[in-house]
């Protein structure tokens, strides 16, 4: 059962579990569980995709309950009229808050984009960040005799592929559990010492003006057990 965090006659939103695909894909032919199909069966009606979260990312995921609602919501995303807040656990101590204004070159997947034509282009990409907490733990990782982590809030102003992962990597504070852009030694250390074996990126909040009622909607997704355990181990609860 998926956790439904909002539903009306036009929209339904869930708290997407980590490592669950949004919909069927020929790139993952052996998978049997997908958010879209599970939600359809759970509420007994078709749902229409509006946006995506990467497979390892958890958090707020919105669907339309009609093709019209899906189109209206998609336009809000395309026009950057959705305010999104993510939380991430990153390597090292990152201080204060700031804005990452660092253009990103398009990422082409070797399989999914093998028929893409033309060279990847560089696109503007902007992310706001704010440090919420820091910790140093007495466990060796790589050549260091301890490990440091920061808990950060991330607000993307643009929607490039893997933007948050790539921006944090650019700052030399990659997200823990990121196998594509992260620090593999830190990932192994987090798994060994804290039982963390997933990407620590969570889509916590999404707010927008409802396209049919014109009311402000704010959707929030609570953090799962892995997140709660990590926060507790680092003394960040409360």
TrEMBL record:
Its EC number is 5.4.99.26. Pfam families: PseudoU_synth_2. It catalyses: uridine(65) in tRNA = pseudouridine(65) in tRNA. InterPro entries: PsdUridine_synth_cat_dom_sf, PsdUridine_synth_RluA-like_CS, PsdUridine_synth_RsuA/RluA, RluA_PseudoU_synthase. Gene3D superfamilies: Pseudouridine synthase. Keywords: Isomerase, tRNA processing. One of its GO terms (molecular function) is RNA binding. GO terms for biological process: enzyme-directed rRNA pseudouridine synthesis; tRNA processing. It comes from the Bacteria. Residues 12-170 form the Pseudouridine synthase RsuA/RluA-like domain. CDD domains: PseudoU_synth_TruC. Responsible for synthesis of pseudouridine from uracil-65 in transfer RNAs. NCBIfam families: PRK11112.1. This is tRNA pseudouridine synthase C. It comes from Rosenbergiella nectarea.
């Amino acid at each position: 059962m998926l956790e439904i965090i909002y539903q009306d006659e036009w929209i339904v939103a869930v708290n997407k579990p980590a490592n669950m695909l949004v919909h069927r894909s020929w790139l993952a032919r052996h998978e049997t569980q997908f958010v879209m199909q599970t939600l359809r069966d759970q509420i007994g009606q078709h749902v229409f995709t509006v946006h995506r979260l990467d497979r390892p990312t958890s958090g707020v995921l919105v669907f339309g309950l009609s093709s019209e609602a899906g189109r209206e919501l998609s336009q809000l995303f395309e026009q950057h009229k959705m305010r999104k807040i993510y939380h991430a656990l990153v390597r090292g101590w990152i201080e204060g808050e700031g804005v990452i204004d660092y253009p990103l070159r398009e990422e082409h997947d070797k399989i999914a984009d093998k028929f893409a034509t033309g060279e990847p282009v560089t696109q503007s990409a902007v992310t706001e960040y704010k440090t919420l907490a820091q910790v140093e733990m007495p466990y060796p990782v790589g050549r260091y005799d301890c490990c440091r982590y920061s808990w950060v809030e991330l607000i993307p102003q643009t929607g490039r592929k893997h933007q948050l992962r790539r921006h944090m990597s650019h700052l030399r504070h990659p997200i823990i559990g990121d196998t594509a852009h992260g620090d593999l030694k830190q990932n192994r250390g987090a798994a060994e010492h804290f039982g963390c074996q997933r990407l620590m990126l969570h889509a916590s909040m999404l707010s927008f003006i409802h396209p049919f009622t014109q009311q402000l909607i704010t959707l929030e997704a609570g953090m799962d057990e892995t997140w709660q355990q990590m926060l507790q181990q680092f003394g960040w609860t409360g």
